[in-house]
Design brief:
2 copies of one chain form a homodimer. Chain A is mainly α. Chain A has helices spanning 2-12, 17-29, 36-48, 72-83, 87-91, 93-102, 109-124, 145-171, and strands spanning 15-16, 52-57, 65-70, 131-132, 135-136. Chain A folds into 2 domains: 2-78, Arc Repressor Mutant, subunit A (Orthogonal Bundle); 109-171. At the A-B interface, helix 2, helix 6 and helix 8 of A face helix 2, helix 6 and helix 8 of B. Chain A binds a DNA duplex through residues 2, 16-18, 21, 34-38, 40-42, 45, 59-66. Chains A, B: This is PadR family transcriptional regulator.
DNA sequence: ACGATATACCTCGGACCCGATGTATAGGTA
DNA sequence: TACCTATACATCGGGTCCGAGGTATATCGT
């Protein structure tokens, strides 16, 4: 998820680590903060894998900046991660939102629609958080008000997203 | 999140690891699967910390079961984790849902309302995923249909949850 | 002159997580 | 007979993540 965000932001324009940190904080930080001690090693990983280039520039304010840019391999890797997301990227909303935030970088509309269709299939499966044996329970069947809340919220999300997915897939010519 | 689920399920009734695994899979597994090799070490951690007791029983079908039950310290720890959730438990929906799934174990209605109020405060803060400088952007201001989708879905979730939170806090006498 | 804050990067240890793999037993099925 | 699935537990290595702490420079307020 973090690596996808790094690749996604750098696809648009080269950035140094500190600026990257601020952009990632703006994107997902209010929900899932990312520590500096997570970001810098992640940058090193991607650099070591040949996906990033580093160019040292004199710092405009303080210490020298390491301006990062995607290599050709990095651009390909971003496309690969967007076109063939991990199952977790589909099911986990945090990761899914990160995919959506950068899906425009996949310039093929059919490939974009394919990714949306995978999320659609996931949401259309009958699933709950609470079961009676194998049968998924509905909000109305629960006594616990907090568990009822979980289902109420999840259902609202699911409805909004299903509507949006179907519209968007249609508008992509899928 | 995993540890909270273990403590939460065992609060109701003793269970062996394999059954615990199935319950956790039913609760959060469709969104965020938990591997066996994550569960068993987590059980050991909690046991080592004195929160769990283990009693070996002959297996009803196959290998002998290790039936796990909460110690008094384990019950206190669950209450503590529910009453004073980590900030991440409030902001991250996956973790928040786990808190909600077991919040009924906190028998004090005022404490329950306090936890809901923390989530309410988080949702009432003006936040987005995308910004123009410091100003959070609305869905309508975005050209990118995928990013617009993120905000559309997030807004639907937020609205449903705000309504539910306010109702539930009121009904708790908060 | 002093401290706080922002910029800009980094390391270390410990905790956590996962995939792969292993060890058994029992039941079904080809 | 052979294999697959389910039950039930566990370890190992590699990787990821975070909090705490460290190193500088520049700016601003007091």
């Amino acid at each position: 998820m973090l690596e996808l965000a790094i690749l996604g932001f750098l696809y648009d324009t080269p950035l140094h680590g500190y600026e990257l940190r601020k952009r990632i904080a703006a994107l997902t930080g209010h929900v899932k903060p990312v520590a500096e001690s997570t970001l810098y090693p992640a940058i090193k990983r991607l650099e070591k894998a040949g996906l990033l280039d580093r160019a040292t520039e004199p710092g405009s304010v303080a210490a020298p900046r390491h301006v990062l840019s995607l290599t050709e391999a990095g651009r390909r890797e971003l496309h690969r991660r967007l076109a063939e997301p991990d199952p977790r990227d589909i099911s986990d909303e945090n990761r899914w939102f990160t995919v959506l935030a950068f899906l425009r970088h996949l310039d093929d509309a059919a490939a974009q629609a394919g990714v949306l269709r995978r999320r659609l299939a996931f949401l259309e499966e009958p699933a709950s958080f609470f079961y009676d044996g194998d049968r998924p329970l509905r909000a109305e069947e629960l006594d616990d008000p907090f568990r009822r809340g979980v289902l109420t919220i999840a259902r609202a999300t699911s409805r909004a997203e299903l509507t949006w997915l179907r519209e968007t897939i249609a508008s992509l010519g899928g």
